[in-house]
Amino acid sequence: MNLHALKIFCEVARRGGVTRAAEALHISQPAVTAQLRTLERELGLTLIAPKGRGILLTEAGELVAEKAERLFSLERELERGLLDYKEGRAGRLRLVSTFLPAHYLLPQALARFKTLYPQVKASLQTLNSRKAAESLLRYEADAAVIGGAGSWEADGLTGEPLLDDEWWFIVPEHHRLAGKRTGLAEMLEEDFVMREAGSSGREMLLAVGRMYGTKAPKAGLEVNGPGEAIRTVASGYGAHLVSALEAAGPVSRGEVSRVYVEEELPVNPIALYTREGEDRPPAVEHFIGVLREVLTGRLDRE
């Protein structure tokens, strides 16, 4: 079926005459008439009949006009949807992330993003780094935010650095070292609230001691989970080595205090990963922009 001729017929039916349809379409009356005759020949039906200075739709014409209006309404809806998608106002955003960015970095960025782009369907799933990368490679996610990104590689992915998460020593608010600078050896004389064996915080604490040749820190108390460790310190006991992302909130609220050591501590790189060689969907590009704005604001505050 000649859709161009069908569209012209719909305009004639909608406006009740060839002249008004020609004016609306910015084409000549003979051109409109020719297209109508072409459509009628193709369908083998008479669609319009003269009625004074206007036209009258035949029964077949009414049927064709009704169905065609639905067809072109769907076309307009499709065009609007595609435009919204191209401009990033619609679509989906499926994120996977490791624990730290998922809990302390992405919620603020996602809240801001959804405020700006409410029609985009967004989701966030927390996985370990390997599973996050695999999910991205299997097309189950559109982007991955992975901590410790410098310690592993995955073919088919490309990474962009977001920030270097620092390690901070924290102590109770009224501790003698609160807010002060000291040497690592003195810091490690404290009783430590230690994470469980195998945790990144515990391994980093032990690694820092080995790196600078100090004695091993003393575990005054062992807990599972970063929240429990920070709350224990906030309650008045021990020292703890913790991610800056986790500690920034409690430090800013005065629940715990940071201790600045003279020695340089390693950092935990956090990076954004997408599939290599692919154009990122517009909604994903918008989210990355929002995420970087949030990070810039965070770094400025720090």
From TrEMBL:
The keyword Nucleotide-binding does not apply. One of its GO terms (molecular function) is DNA-binding transcription factor activity. Residues 1-58 form the HTH lysR-type domain. It comes from the Bacteria. InterPro entries: LysR_HTH_N, LysR_subst-bd, WH-like_DNA-bd_sf, WH_DNA-bd_sf. Belongs to the LysR transcriptional regulatory family. This is LysR family transcriptional regulator. It comes from Paenibacillus aurantius. The lineage of its organism: Bacteria, Bacillati, Bacillota, Bacilli, Bacillales.
